Please model this.
Amino acid sequence: MTELERYVAPTTLAAAIDCLKDGEVTILAGGTDLTPQTRAGRMRIKRTLMNIRRIPELKGIALDGGAIRIGALTTITEIMDSALIAKHLPVLVETCRHFASDQIRNAGTLGGNLCNASPAGDTAIPLLVLGASVELASKPEDKIYRRSIPLSEFFVGPGQTRRSLCELLTAVTVPLPAPGHVARFHKFGTRVGLDISTVSIGIGGTLKDGALAAARVAFGAVAATPLRAAQTEAALEGQRLDAAAIARIAAVARDEVHPIDDVRATAWYRKELIHNMTKRMLENVAQA
Model:
């Protein structure tokens, strides 16, 4: 049963952060996660419901020095339609094409998808591969204070992040990839677009002479959080992607993950998917 007492819709970042100081605030952005979770009884609306959709500081995609800054309220559709994202971060566009339905992409926001902190969250995987960070804003005194956290350190458990109750996620920053950077994303589910991922994989790095440098690998739906795969990255780093190397790296990926059984798949099946999908993706990268 809800205990909602008031609804607010601030138009400035400062006003929104001031509202968070109450401590009993539920944040509403696109509502594509909040609404079904509330109706299913998995989430309770707190004393204040704050709609942040009217805050212009949380919108937009722009170059910011050597990085691309994506506002927290940027929708999945806006990412797909961005020429800047398509030019520099094509793997993020590729991921968004497999994100739910048109209706959800039109409303769902990048910030909301990350703060939902689902182990199977789609956008987290390419952003981990791209070395993204999240920007959090608070107002401990009279000025807005901002801090940046690498996305790889942001998630702490299912539905849990390092964002404190008095902070608002304002943006995601992604460093511009180096020349020659390639990245791939693959998601497996019964219906790839609309289903929650059974597993998802992101692989990236700078390709030169058939090998990846600065290799990054990320897995979704195989642990309590989306995660970087350190052992697989180490096995991949600098290796020429011939058949023997790809087979060896795929085996490392399978052995690195420790998923659970649930309604979507058994742990064994997830490990086999990680092995087979990693192998196919590396074969694809080798042909880039």
Observations:
- The chain has twelve helices and 14 strands.
- The longest strand covers residues 199-208.
- The mean pLDDT is 95.
